[in-house]
Amino acid sequence: MTGPGRRSSTFTRLLRHGFTDASAAERLLDGAELSPVRNDPVLLEALGRTADPDLALHGLVRLLEAQPGASARRELLDTVIAAKPLRDRLLGVLGASAALADHLARHPRDWEALVTYEPRDLHPGVEEFERGLAEADDPVSLRVAYRRCLLSIAARDVCGTTDLAETAAELADLATATLRAALALARAAASDDAALCRLAVIAMGKCGGHELNYVSDVDVIFVGEAADGADEGKALRAATKLAAHMMRICSETTVEGSIWPVDANLRPEGRNGPLVRTLSSHLAYYQRWAKTWEFQALLKARPVAGDLELGAEYVTAVAPLVWQAAERENFVPDVQKMRRRVVENIPVAEVERELKLGPGGLRDVEFAVQLLQLVHGRADASLRSGTTLDALHALAAGGYVGRTDAVQLDAAYRFLRSMEHRIQLYRLRRTHLVPVVERDQRRLGRSLGLRTDPVAELNREWKRHAAVVRRLHEKLFYRPLLDAVAQLPSGEARLSTQAARERLVALGYADPAAALRHLEALASGVTRKAAIQRTLLPVLLGWFADSADPDAGLLNFRKVSDALGKTPWYLRLLRDEGAAAENLARVLSAGRLAPDLLMRAPEAVALLGDGDAGGLAPRGRAHLEQEILSAVGRADSAVQGVTAARGVRRRELFRTAAADIVASYGTEAQPVEADQGALVDLVGGAVSDITAAALAGTLRAVVRDGWGDTLPTRFAIIGMGRFGGHELGYGSDADVLFVHEPREGVDEHEAGRAANAVVSEMRRLLQVPSADPPLLVDADLRPEGKSGPLVRTLKSYEAYYRRWSLGWESQALLRAEPVAGDEDLGRRFVSLIDPLRYPRAGLGDDAVREIRRLKARMEAERMPRGADPKLHTKLGPGGLSDVEWTVQLLQLRYGAEEAGLRTTRTRGALAAARACGLLSEEDAATLDEAWVLATRVRNAVMLVRGRAGDTFPSDPRELAAVGRYLGYGPGHVGDMLDDYRRTGRRARGVVDSLFYGA
To answer: By CB distance 3.0 to 4.6 Å, which of 195, 482, 530, 695 could disulfide with 525?
Structure first.
């Protein structure tokens, strides 16, 4: 007896041997089933070596209870105590798999399958498994026999007799034997059908690759031919019946559960295609219609059941097509599409627990290996293995992958697959999720040999291996390219020049010869610069390849490197600041504008970093004005002052473009900005602020140079159009009005001459050719247009608007806002025009008709000849003009009554109109979506081409780059254009109703 409050020695020993519920274990050991061996140290030590001693003990008691009598229980116990191989195998399985413990409880004599311990039992193949299934004569008995064979595989696995690759191969061999047995049952049930046809079962996926999981769909393709003298149509129908029956035998749930689903969706046309095709039909499909991923899948094709001769013919026939896949026209965009992880399809709560599809998961390794096989397997037959680890070894041996990288990736893959195996083995359920319950993690860790602190060690090792995969996944493609061109001594095999070119073409580089020259220039030598760039380039090349123009990205990086490579801070920035390198790669490969701005002053690359000098958030107008005005104050002349202002403008345009590109593409640290409207507002507000600050600085510089501190007349600049609306794009001119008011005692003519001189000099200095982009100042919206004076006094504006103002001028004034110069004069100008743009009586019918007539005439006259109206962002259906004129008509009619409408910003006015009930929530959303999309397209065109445009580019690569900026992956340009047309069509319907009253 143990005294109150004291633990028995057995309880303490149980805890020491790894039991978590020692009280329950003590009760089980004291039960009748284990009474003969309850104090046997051999049993406790053996239980303590299992993944879950509590589970193993519980399973052993259940197995003993299930024995048919006392003699059978005694036989089992005696064998467990006396025979170490059986003890380790049986208890190892019971401690790792509740599902196999359930099987043993239902079939209590199956433990005897673990007794045999002969050399041939250590590594059974298809023949041995076929013998193990031979007595199965129906689906139920097939399941029982399958689990009995699975029991022996699991026993060898958990005891360490077989490693990961051997276990996966045994599981694939068992699947092969099972498919053959299931097909035999189907043929026996329909002998007439069997006589009509030849049917071959081709294993695909992990089964075909000889690397199957414990629980996985078994992917297959069926090939059928008519038997001698049989009609082909009848033969295919018979083969389809046999194939379908075979699938049901394996997949259907019975009293013994199911085996695994047989999935034939990798066949031509997927689930929409016929289940069975002839060999010629397969070839016709692959030659004409197959996509790149289908050839990738065929890497693992292996005949396993049925007519093996026909299966071999199939594999021989499709092999040349597989190895020619890299030469196909759409191979590059298909590869880019496939390289994108499918993380977005995983529930957010599961992403971090996904072993297969998550970042640094098994799919990353498998895809990388398969892609390199497709690229280089054309010329090197040694790479044509369907098994991931064998193919990785061959790639390393051939120099296609660095040996160190291959070793690290091999170890990471083995660990992650072992985790997957143990997770699935527990319940024999198909899952790739790491469990969250601590007890499950403890069992998992112990099953992998982590015994000191299983949970902490498991998570540490898992994260470490996943990090290795994430780090090597991209470098795997590119590091050998650098080794091939770096001209450094190495004991490893290297890629040949031809192999390097093939890989670059496969990864999207249009000019591989030029790319290799750039890589050689960047990576060769023993300088610190070359060493750092060799470290960075494998990752940078992957980011370039993720863009629509990898060649431009690499060329631009070489230019930046040539300009800054000897600057210590540049290399330190790229090496040490996490976001800088990826931000730079995105910016350099996204089009012409941002790289052009950067090349004019490469030191702006510092903005891409994380440090104090970096940061892509736009700076406000007040901050920019202060910087520019300070620079102007230090300048010796107007030319120097304006040069400084233009330099700040160039730098800030680059900052804005870089922020826009990074948010649109997304990076590891910053996901893609989901709110497209926010990006439009960011660009419009930032570019408008930059322009206003540049004008303010230029005005100060010109006045100081010609008149000292005070101009003879007060002077203000009024922003118009997109400028006044805070909606400027990268390529927009600055639409303005100039207003002045002579100072007290100054002659009006003298004041006018001074104001005109200021305007002329400002416009000249802002357009002087230089390293900085010009700023075009457009005053055509002034009274009388190009025929009117460039500058007017406030009184002159008042007189003109009172007597001569036209309806279009009132409409244009809706966007008027002071942007620079005398603030008081700007405020008084706004007070002057408010009654014109927000008339108290609203608009009369005649005025509304005139606005509608003007818009219709503008659409007819200004649409460029040959342009597709449906894709014109300004004048097309649902384009900028449609939305803006609709909003402005509402402002003119109701602005006097509704204060919210009195704004120069289109989206702000649209939101106000919705808030006060002038249009429905749905209509407002439709118009807003169309306006945002059209603006994004215009911004994209400028970023990609380096010059403004209102239509989508015709060049395929430029069009793909616009699509990439808008969030469309490779191969989805057609979807982008269809979506644009659809958005415009919906918006035009709202415009017809609200603007034209249709």
So the answer is: 530
